[in-house]
Design goal:
With about 120 residues, the protein is α+β, with helices and mostly antiparallel strands. The protein has one domain. Helices cover about 25% and strands about 15% of the residues. A three-stranded antiparallel β-sheet has the order 1-2-3, covered by helices on one side. Strands 4-5 form a two-stranded antiparallel sheet. A hairpin with a 2-residue loop joins strand 4 and strand 5. The chain is extended, with a radius of gyration of 20 Å. The model has no long low-confidence stretch (mean pLDDT about 85).
Length: about 120
């Protein structure tokens, strides 16, 4: 939580405003570009950049009202024969040292100690 508070403070100190507990219901689009948001309470806010932190389905089909879906998007969300890929978490660390003498592996995998079950499927 401390990291979130630091990011929020830095954002506020540079002129940004945080609106907590405000559900976004629509991403406002003009000339094919996202330019703002509409909240559940009806308020709208203009923005130079809109970044959705919602899941892809809600972003595409709710906030963008399904206007920007294509064949690939429909296949990913609705094709029963589509086999989803295993989820990945990417972690990037800034470290104040070099690693030129260390063994380098392009990917590190940390297997789960117990199987993860999602929607009755074991991952």
């Amino acid at each position: 939580m401390k990291l979130v508070n630091m990011i929020e403070k830095k954002y506020s100190d540079t002129g940004g405003r945080i609106h907590n507990s405000s559900k976004v219901t629509r991403i406002i689009v003009k000339n094919g570009a996202a330019c703002g948001i509409k909240l559940e309470n009806g308020k709208t806010y203009d923005a130079e950049i809109v970044i959705s932190a919602a899941d892809g389905h809600y972003t595409i089909f709710e906030m963008l009202e399904g206007k920007y879906k294509d064949e690939n998007v429909m296949r990913l969300y609705y094709d029963k024969d589509f086999e989803p890929k295993t989820s990945t978490v990417f972690i990037s660390l800034g470290v104040s040292r070099t690693f030129e003498n260390e063994y380098h592996m392009p990917w590190l995998f940390f297997p789960l100690e117990k199987p993860l079950i999602i929607d009755d499927k074991t991952q």
